[in-house]
Amino acid sequence: MACSQSLLGAVALLAAWLGSGTAFAQATLKLATLAPEGSIWMQALHDAKTEIEATTAGAVKIKIYPGGIMGSEKDVLFKIKTGQLQGGGFMGYAIGKICPDSSALMFPMVFRSYEEVDQAMEKMRSYLDASARANGYEAMGWTEVGFNYAYGIKPIATLDQLRATKVWGLDSPMLIELFAAAHIASIPANVTDVLTALATGSLETVFGPPTAAVAVQWHTKIRYYNTMRLTYAVGGIFLSSTGWNMVPPAHRETVRSVFDRHCRLLSPKVRKSDIEALDFLRAQGVVPNEETSEVRAAFEEVANAALKKVVGTVFSAEAWDRLQQCLKDIRGS
Q1: Cβ–Cβ under 8 Å, residues 44 and 10
Q2: Taking the mean position of all CA atoms in its chain, how far away is CA 113?
Q3: Of 42, 118, 129, 300, which residue is least crowded by CB atoms under 10 Å?
């Protein structure tokens, strides 16, 4: 009798354990991105998905919606908030919303070289992760979007030449303040309309990473680009806190480490692609307006004037101070 009771108790315990879902805990994470299928960003997401699903034996599934089919990054953030999605791979608007303090790294004229970027990003990473977490997101990995350059139909070697052109205005608080400080009148346009605007002459100067400039065919209209690296942009893969909590605890380290490793592998590919894109522009006859120390100083003066308007609003003073200390350590000054 005692044996039968023990057996029944064991069966009941097993049934309760199985019924709890512990043995077959599974999470399906739905991620969206603007990155098109076939791009290096999508390849990184596919590689991470394959590895995570294999390593967790299917306990964590990844569903990816590429190419903006879930809408703009603003749309994707709304869908994350309502639970339709759990995260995404972001390269623009959403980064500033998920981790506002990351905008300090993307302020104009901050970085002078890739070496500075690499060292500062490592020094700032844990702080930025904590900033995103406080905002309701878990950073799975950060990656490079790249340096932004100015491209023009007319020469843009100096601030005066830039002011004399029809400048594309982006919906960015930092750029708005920068243009105001530089006394530059800008013309707003959706990114999808820029090529047509260049063709008709309603825009004459635009901005972006070289790979993107080639991908959207701007190189067929522009005749010049300024070699000065105006801003640096970061991207990454993020899950909402709710999405992160869906991942079985036993697999969280795997999910984070796999995403992070593929983001780190992606950065040098982005960098290589940008360098090749600049070579391609020159081969197509696009003339480089070479950066000079005088022109850089003029742009830095404008950036410093705009800085007063964005510290404490777009990003925190703490983030800026941390970044400046990092750069002082890196530069030895």
Answers
A1: no
A2: 18
A3: 300
Please state the pTM of the whole predicted model.
Answer: 0.84
| Domain assignment of residue 299, given as a range | 26-331
Query: Which amino acid, one-letter code, is at 179?
Result: F
* CATH code for position 79: 3.40.190.170
Structural domains in the chain (count): 1
Core vs surface per residue 318-332: b (16+ CB within 10 A) or e: ebbebbeebbeebee
- 16 assigned to some structural domain: no
Domain for residue 8, yes or no? Answer: no
Pair type for strands 87-90 and 137-152: unpaired
Q: Does 21 fall in a domain?
A: no
Residue 55 counted as domain residue: yes
pLDDT tens for 4-37 read 444 444 434 333 333 334 444 589 999 999 888 8
